[in-house]
Amino acid sequence: MSETIKKENPLPNPDEKTEIKDSAELKKQKTYQIFKRNQLLNDLLPLSGFIVLFIIYTIVCLANGYTYTDYLWATFDRGVFIALMSIGASFLFTLGQFDMSLGSAMGLSACVGLLVYMSTGNIALSIISCILGAMLVALCNILFSSVLRVPIFIMSIAMMTVLQQVILAFITTFGEKGSSQINLSPNPFYGTFMQTNQFRLMIIILYFLFCLVIFRFLKFGRKAKFLGGNPFCARLTGISGRRNSIIAFLLCAIGVGLTAICYIGESPTVTSATGSTYGMDIMVAIVIGGMPMSGGARSKITAPLIGSFTLAFLEELLRAFPATSGEGMIQIFKAILFIGLVYASSRSYRTSTLPR
Amino acid sequence: MKKVKNLVLALASVSFIASGLSSCGGTSKVRIGFINPDTSGGETQAWGSYVSDYLAKAYADKYEFIVSTFSSFSSTTTNHAECKSMLAKGCKAIVEIGYGDETNFTACKEKGVYYCATGSSPDTEKRLTETYKSINDHFIGALGPSLTQEAQAGYDMADYYITTKKYTDLSVYGCVIGYAQSLGITVHAWRVAGMFKRMLEDAPDATTHYCSFYAGKKENYFTKNSTIQEIETTIAGRSNVYGVDAKGNQWATGDILNIGPYKVNYWQQNVADRTANDAEEVTFTTDAKGAFNGDDTFKSQIILGSASAYSMFAGKGRCKADASGKVDLKIAEVESFADANLTAMNSGYIDYECGKMNSCIGPAFAAVFSALNGRNFGVDASGTADLLVGSQGFWAVTSAAEFTERANFDKYATHPAYSKALLDTMTYRSKEETASDGTKLAANDITREQFLTKFNACTYEEVKAAREAAEA
Question: Is A77 in Cβ contact with B134 (below 8 Å)?
Fold first, then answer.
């Protein structure tokens, strides 16, 4: 409208000019209101979705006479591995990166942890080696990516297969001859705190708080958001992309290592396929939790936690009904949710307003 | 307009919740969980259908079955997560496909829930002591074919073509051996080991090295006297039958192995690389030569498959029906008595079908019902844990008529081989009970040994006679 007026009358009188200015201001305000509304919706959607799912879950549980506490723990266990890995992976997401090999890295860490336990019988050493194993894999990822100048995401896809072969090599070399798995039976962690749900709960709370402090209150968190939002400007201000990537990968590796500890505590069996299906679900969980696809300033450390348990509750609910319990149906539900939320979150970026 | 839209959305949400709740009322029936970690195969789908469609209806008055639907090949859901969920849902017993999972059977023990593994069972010599160190009085048994019987299935298949058909040029398809082993599944390697064992038996002497390959300077080989377990260990350790020869050449499909007096072309699919598969399938089904030990005189007479070879090769190379409907290179496979395989046999692709009964998991449920009725076959007379291990062999057919006869006999969703009447004869009952149709069921004081005898009588003729007697 204003452009039409400009073309017809290049020099409008002062009154008309004020009118046009008011109209532009109104449009701007309206755009801002829409942006704020979409932003609020985008912020609240994951949490409200989680709450609604939880209410339905509770009703279904009580209506069927399930043991509520046990059912809650079972659902917690369904989501805890994804949650632990995705909390760490949210640092990578904030930087605008992602590592698809996290699941296989977890498998390798668990394998290392079990092998160390087999040779030493020391649980503490086994735990430490799980974390160190994950960190080593993360450093290899960064190193190969830097040397070969390949984006980390692409590198991580190749690493998935490499890590599976490394696990297989470990099993063949150090495991029982002819066996395709490392299987400690009877479970040496049986009856220890490491095998309990409470242990897994404690680990996830401590790791989340650790990441929360780094994300919200330390310089690294702010730098990561800046790098994810505008890497060019961030570098101009002297922030090192590579150094911060290394820190993010190492923080993520801690989560992977902790997952490996929880995994072997529950089931001390590792094959080359261990963890290989987790990569995609970690990404879906982070996005469903409300993390923007591009990372940057609007990244949230709470997103992976909400997303992982939303997925867990959703899956438990879908599996409760015969019509929706099929594997294909569950994957379709996840995909619809993923696409829907990506669309909803993208609506809040389709404005000229910068993120704030 | 906006308010109306919101109202419609709210109503839709409420109706969704209400309809969800209406379909899931509480129950007074005893819940039994069935963990089926693979919903993609014909055999495992038949097992799932047997429980959800047949057992659920046949025992509707007494039991409610919760059937897992995840696929361990593609899902992040594990059998452990499913087991915990079933325990929280109040299941009093859990039946799981496999050898038995320690995490699950200890979790069941903690909750006072019975557990039974089925579909596969451990080799009584090798695996029993190693795998089941944590057996407990709630772990009833592992009921299925033993690994020895898996090898026997491969042995019998090779024997049929060597002895009856006098074939000498054989193609062997080692279905997903490397990949399945990464998931702890070794049955395919045992079946191939059985095939090789049969071929090696005809070797002229005990000193010749067959299938010789090198790991560094160490030579791995088979001889006439190699045991099935030694052969299986070599296959499993190598991830492919081929390897590096004495000159450092990496053999592959099309390089012909000598195993005893027989010539063998081997193929093992590459799960991660479908393009490589396509090229290798052409080499395999057209007798194209490999790079290092091709043989112009080799012309494959049959494909021996350690699992479904039909789905892999039908329509490729010589394994293709010509204008007259004749298939030049036919298939023998270990799969199931599913309709699709009957069609393939009728159209000339499948020459030999070997498979478990579609309802072969039935006895595991009978053992579980018995435990719930007060007699746990997994403990000895003093109440000490003594795992029930059975050996249930395969059925094999070489004609469509035989196939149809067995498939009709074992209709898993409507009238299976292990029907309710037959399962009732294997189920302990301390006192008379009334069936859903009002008929009186007599008390059945079956012992552990009697149960095992009935379970191990697994040939077609034996099961047929048992079912007819039970239903009479």
Answer: no
Percent pLDDT > 70 in chain B is 87
List C-alpha distances in Å: A352 to A28, A29, A32, A232, A246.
Answer: 10, 12, 9, 20, 33
Full residue range of the structural domain in which residue A142 is found: 82-344
B241 belongs to a structural domain:
yes
Query: B233 at the A interface (CB within 8 A)?
Result: yes
Q: Which DSSP string corresponds to A204-258?
A: HHHHHHHHHHHHHHSHHHHHHHHHHH-HHHHHHTT--HHHHHHHHHHHHHHHHHH
Number of folded domains that form chain B: 2
CA angle B126, B106, A128 (to 5 degrees): 85
Query: Is residue B8 situated within a structural domain?
Result: no
* One domain for residues B325 and B424: no
Among B234, B251, B332, B246, which residue's Cα sits nearest to residue B295? B251
Q: Do B436 and B376 fall within a single domain? A: yes
> How much is the average pLDDT of B397-411?
93
> Is B299 found in the same domain as B377?
no
Residues of A in contact with B17 (CB under 8 A): 56, 59
pLDDT tens track for B435-467? 666 677 788 999 999 999 999 999 999 999 999
- What would the mean pLDDT of A164-176 be, rounded to a whole number? 84
Mean pLDDT within B386-413: 91
Q: Residue A98: pLDDT above 90?
A: no
User: Are residues B199 and B141 part of one domain?
Assistant: no
**Domain stop point among B335, B356, B377:** B356
- Closest listed residue to residue A247, CA positions, set A82, A94, A84: A94
Q: Same domain, yes or no, for B287 and B250? A: yes
A25 inside domain? no
A195 in a structural domain: yes
Residues 78-107 of B with CB under 8 A from A: 80-81, 84-85, 87-90, 101-103, 106
**Hey, is A170 helix, strand or coil?**
helix
Contact flag B74-A327 (C-beta cutoff 8 Å):
yes
B127-171 pLDDT tens trace: 555 556 667 889 999 898 888 889 999 999 999 999 999 999 999
Per-residue pLDDT band at A348 (split at 50, 70, 90): low
Q: How far is CA B294 from the centre of its chain?
A: 34
Q: Does the pLDDT at position B18 exceed 50?
A: no
Question: CATH number for the domain including A290?
Answer: 1.10.3470
Is residue B170 in some structural domain? yes
Taking an 8 Å cut-off on Cβ atoms, the answer to whether B26 and A321 are in contact is no
Residues of B in contact with A60 (CB under 8 A): 20-21, 24
How many structural domains is chain A composed of? 1
Q: Are residues B198 and B320 in the same domain?
A: yes
Which among A280, A273, A281, A355 has a CA at the least distance from the CA of A315?
A281
Whether the complex's predicted ipTM is more than 0.90 is answered with: no
pLDDT at A17: 66
Same-domain check for residues B186 and B250: yes
A277–B76 CB contact, under 8 Å: yes
Which candidate, B385, B375, B381, B359, places its Cα nearest to that of B451? B375
Q: Is B188 within the bounds of a domain? A: yes
Q: Is residue A33 part of a domain?
A: no
Whether B181 contacts chain A with CB within 8 A: yes
Facing B88 at nearest CB: one of A70, A186, A271: A70
Q: CB distance B182–A67 less than 8 Å?
A: no
The whole domain housing B308 covers 149-356
